[in-house]
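If your schedule permits, I should be very grateful for your opinion on a structural question. I have a record of one protein: its chain in single-letter code and its fold written as discrete structure tokens. Would you kindly read the sequence against the tokens and tell me how you understand this chain to fold? Thank you for your consideration; the sequence and its tokens are set out here.


***
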Amino acid sequence: MKRLRPLVAHAANWEPPVPRKHFYAILILTWLTLSAVALLPAPGDILEQPLRLELPLSAQGTNTDQNNTEFNAIPDHELVDPGTDSTPDDDIPAVAEPEWMEYKIRDGENLTAIFNNLGLSNTTLYKVIDADTKNRLASLKPGQVIEVLIDQDSLLQQLKFRLNIKETLILERKDDQYEERVLSKDVEWQNSTLLGKINGSFYQSARNAGLSSAHIQKIANLFQWRMNISRELKQGDTFKVLLKNETVEDQKTGNSVLLGVEFKTGGKSVSAWLSDDGNYYDGDGASLERGFRRFPTHTRYRVSSAFNPARKHPITGLVRPHEGTDFATPVGAPVLSTGDGIVLKATSHPLAGTYVVIRHSRTVTTRYLHLSKLLVKTGQQVKMGDKIALTGNTGRSTGAHLHYEVRINNRPVDPMKVKLPMAEPLSGKAKRQFLAKVTQYRKALADS
């Protein structure tokens, strides 16, 4: 007790190092802290009963942490939708299905560049090239589009390329290789009519009416023996054309057939109509084409050398095309024109000897070589069966014979096999069927 008196006396006179009001505040905070610690549960109690955390409403939800431990503060009715059978697997994202992609070809791109841009391997490229048996993909052009189906492993499953309006090339992966097929759409044939009036040339007038160059040329060839279209058609004359067009889903493919054409000129009608035999006839069933003879002589002489584009020449031994048919004839046998026409040449040449060339139409000419005597002159009109020369052995020849050629568009064809135009008119049942069809064609033109 004696020892405490000096300390008490000292405490009575002690002044804190901080202002007295601050000192009392520190004492109060210290007391509150110690009281809170005393109220905390023992460590064992904490493990047995987890602390409930009251989260703000904005933070409450159904999220889980990485260990899938649910927050106890979230109400039970918000954790699982009572209408679903939720399992942990539901949270695993599904593997995305491959989707079709369109790739538009750019300038300067080839198949290699395209596959590189698509992230496809060279191995895939080579397999696709092998499957493309007709090398259709080698001719890709800027602006064209290919469709590709690439899976999550960057493997090409399918490739599609539209060849035309009715065909699509498909290359599909099968057992680590690719199989080729062509998908064809159904086609329909629909008739259409074009009407025109001559204003300038027939060609320009027909183009203005919507005719293609191919059909204009065909019409000119059909009427070459009946009328001179470029000279006889006058300003104001009219024409009607009936076409059969190939369509896919009501779109024209570009393929069409000329069914008929009719001109009104100088108060008369001139027409041409397609028959079931593939030839064209006028409205009465008469052929529009001049007929031809198969043989240029009265007598059927033996063929000593047939048409052969790869024949070995009997004199030089070199491989040279034999562009006609040789007939073993005696010298002086009559040579006949095989069709109506105009003599283009009647002259001589060191190799062909004395020879004649006759033009029968815009596209067909015939040639007669190694003659002994000419019976016609250049510019002369001849008819089928007219005598034009006598056979001989002139020019480069190993013996008396007649070399006969038929040329279409200045290209030699086999005279013994070439399809010659029919000269005979239709008759009997064929004519009756044809005239019934012409009636239908004319009705279609009249209704347009």
Summary: Residues 88 and 200 are 83 Å apart (CA to CA). The longest strand covers residues 251-265. The radius of gyration is 49 Å.
